[in-house]
C-alpha cells in the first residue's frame, strides 16, 4: 500500500477507536444513550465518507490543469459542505438522533488528524519554543 493509503487507514482507525471510546463513555454520561450513539455513528460514517471524497477529489484535481482543478475542487468542496449541512439538519429534525453525537462524530476526524500530523511532530514544538538568536 502506498504512503497516502497507509496514512488514510491510520486516520480511519484512529477515528474508529476514539469514537468507540466516546460511545462507551456515553453509556455512563448520557441518558438514554441510544440517540447519542446513533448520532455518533451517523456523524462518524458521514465524516469518513467525506474524508474519502476529499481524497478522491485531490487525486483527480492533481491531474488537471490549474484552472480546471480549482473549479473542480471548489465544486466538490461545496458538495461536501452541503452533505454535512444535510446531515446536521437530519440530526436536528430526527428525534432518534442526538445532535451532539452527530457533531462529535463529524469533528473527531479533525482531532485525529491534528493529533497524528501536528502533535506528534517534536520538531514543530522545538521550533515554537526555540529562542531566536540575536543578529
UniProtKB/TrEMBL annotation:
<dbReference type="GO" id="GO:0005886">
    <property type="term" value="C:plasma membrane"/>
</dbReference>
<keyword id="KW-0812">Transmembrane</keyword>
<feature type="transmembrane region" description="Helical">
    <location>
        <begin position="36"/>
        <end position="57"/>
    </location>
</feature>
<dbReference type="Pfam" id="PF03899">
    <property type="entry name" value="ATP-synt_I"/>
</dbReference>
<keyword id="KW-0472">Membrane</keyword>
<protein>
    <submittedName>
        <fullName>ATP synthase I chain</fullName>
    </submittedName>
</protein>
<feature type="transmembrane region" description="Helical">
    <location>
        <begin position="12"/>
        <end position="30"/>
    </location>
</feature>
<feature type="transmembrane region" description="Helical">
    <location>
        <begin position="96"/>
        <end position="114"/>
    </location>
</feature>
<keyword id="KW-1003">Cell membrane</keyword>
<feature type="transmembrane region" description="Helical">
    <location>
        <begin position="69"/>
        <end position="90"/>
    </location>
</feature>
<keyword id="KW-1133">Transmembrane helix</keyword>
<dbReference type="InterPro" id="IPR005598">
    <property type="entry name" value="ATP_synth_I"/>
</dbReference>
